[in-house]
Amino acid sequence: MIEMKGVTKKYPNGVLALRGVDISIKQGEFVYVVGPSGAGKSTFIKLMYREEKPTNGRIVVNGVNLSTLKARSVPLLRRQIGVVFQDFKLLPTLTVYENVAFAMEVIEESPAVIKKRVMEVLELVGLKNKARMLPEELSGGEQQRVSIARSIVNKPKVVIADEPTGNLDPDTAWDIMDIFEKINAQGTTLVMATHNKEIVNTVRRRVVAIEGGCIVRDEQRGDYGYEV
Ligand code: ADP
């Protein structure tokens, strides 16, 4: 599903953010990515949806070799991968419904299909009754639920989240986690970079720890393993 072989990322300023990373993630897995700030977690995640390109090495996602992917094929890849950010990245002038529908309109689905699917995902995240509201009228947790709805509306095989609970209080973080669990239970692969020790140590899943650009630990049902 996701394969990295000998992946190195050096930024133009000379920072070596990843050094020879090898990993294999199977369809349907739930993987936490942990590690101190600056370890390379975001870079690792950005490489998976081709926000960044590796300096060396091979990355295959969903059978697509990202190293040889043409620029014009990148949008097609992005539609097959749901992405969730710490700061939600919703469009402020669009309603909840429109923010989610937008992701489908760009793939030219019919209005009837779009409406049915958008309401379906809004129901899944518990926001059907707020479809007409603007992002600014919602709490942080609700905004994150909109962004999760958006990430899954095109039925991607994989959802990648970079610190999705980083801006949320502990109870809200758990609500978000419940939604990710539901999505994963439906067979979607989930990769989530997180600093949320409580979640990682309670809902035991595969833990990949990155330090100094290297994978230093990779355990099934692992724990968070850091004091901070
Ligand atoms: P983490 O997500 O674990 O905090 P990052 O992947 O964001 O780590 O960063 C890894 C290293 O790469 C850090 O030293 C960071 O400063 C550097 N870095 C991240 N993005 C860029 C960039 N666009 N240009 C230059 N250096 C970067």
From TrEMBL:
Example of a GO MF term: ATP hydrolysis activity
Localization per Swiss-Prot or TrEMBL: Cell membrane
Pfam families registered for this protein in UniProt: ABC_tran
Gene Ontology terms describing biological process: cell division
Domain ABC transporter residue range list: 2-228
UniProt KW Cell division keyword: yes
Membrane topology classification: Peripheral membrane protein
Cytoplasm among keywords: no
Any one Gene Ontology cellular component term annotated for this protein: plasma membrane
Keywords: ATP-binding, Cell cycle, Cell division, Cell membrane, Membrane, Nucleotide-binding, Transport
InterPro entries: AAA+_ATPase, ABC_transporter-like_ATP-bd, ABC_transporter-like_CS, ABC_transpr_LolD-like, Cell_div_FtsE, P-loop_NTPase
Chief place where the protein resides: membrane
Transmembrane intervals: none
Superkingdom as given in the UniProt entry: Bacteria
Family label: Belongs to the ABC transporter superfamily.
Quaternary context: Homodimer. Forms a membrane-associated complex with FtsX.
NCBIfam families from the UniProt entry: FtsE (TIGR02673)
Role played: Part of the ABC transporter FtsEX involved in cellular division.
Name of the protein described by the UniProt record: Cell division ATP-binding protein FtsE
Organism of derivation: Pseudobacillus wudalianchiensis
The encoding gene: ftsE
